[in-house]
Amino acid sequence: MCLAIPGKIKSVEMQYDGKVRMAKVLFGGITKEASLEMLPDADIGDYVLVHVGVAISKVNEEEAQKTFKYLEEIGELGDLTDVDEYLPKTN
């Protein structure tokens, strides 16, 4: 089963001699790098679904929270511990 995990973009920069747009994405309490090449309009503060290091679609904060909750329920968060304190807060 392939899984895309929602995360929030914290920073964006050009890497690999300025050829690839990369982001630091926060997943729970863990930050990882992801390519933004498939999402040229993604920017800091956006929520994206990331699959194998590539952001494949943007989602809103509510959808990101629902996905995180579901992944937590089925035990698919792996290294992402203490997820509740990092989930987006709903108003």
Summary keywords:
elongated; single chain; 1 helix; 5 strands; mainly beta; 91 residues
Please give a structural write-up.
There is one protein chain. With 91 residues, the protein is mainly beta. It is 14% helix and 40% strand. The chain has one helix and five strands, in the order E-E-E-E-E-H. Strand 4 (47-51) and strand 5 (54-59) form a beta hairpin.
Low-confidence stretches: 81-88
Strand content: 35-45%
Name the strands of the widest sheet in spatial order.
Answer: 3-2-1-4-5
Helix fraction by DSSP (H/I, runs of at least 4): 10-25%
**What is the ordering of alpha helices and beta strands?**
EEEEEH
- DSSP E strands, number: 5
Largest sheet: 5 strands, antiparallel
- How many whole angstroms does the radius of gyration measure? 13 Å
Number of helices: 1
- Which whole number gives the mean pLDDT? 84
Distance between the termini: 33 Å
Shape: elongated
| Structure classification | mainly beta
Summarize the structure.
Helix content is 14%, strand content 40%.
What's the SSE blueprint?
Layout (H helix, E strand, L loop, with lengths): L4 E11 L4 E8 L2 E6 L11 E5 L2 E6 L1 H13 L18
Antiparallel strand pairs: 1-2, 1-4, 2-3, 4-5
